[in-house]
Specification:
Blueprint: H1 4-20, H2 30-46, H3 49-66, H4 75-93
């Protein structure tokens, strides 16, 4: 087992690299800004990178559809959105009892 004192510096560096990408977001386009903010909040509040990516991708897809720009979504993004929805549903079904989604 690797002690936490050895992994903490690596996690801090990864966090810095992740947060530095927020400076390059186009904040004038809400279909990009809202999912970016939503995802970064989910990283912090759920302590789960998978949920942060999941909600970022779902938020981006929903924002693009709501803005009427569905044709700009790539087939890869549509497939990944479906995969993440399935992941979230299956994670909620098979989660330990007593914990909520």
């Amino acid at each position: 087992m690797i002690p936490s004192i050895a992994t903490a510096p690596a996690l801090i560096i990864v966090g810095i690299f992740m947060i530095s990408q927020l400076s390059s977001l186009d904040l004038s386009d809400l279909t990009v800004a809202v999912p970016g903010f939503y995802g970064s909040c989910n990283y912090a509040f759920t302590f789960n990178i998978a949920y942060g990516v999941l909600f970022s991708m779902l938020g981006y897809t929903l924002c693009m559809v709501a803005a009427g720009r569905k044709k700009e979504l790539s087939p890869t993004m549509i497939v990944l959105t479906g995969v993440f929805i399935a992941y979230f549903i299956l994670d909620c079904i098979f989660k330990e009892r007593g914990k909520r989604c």
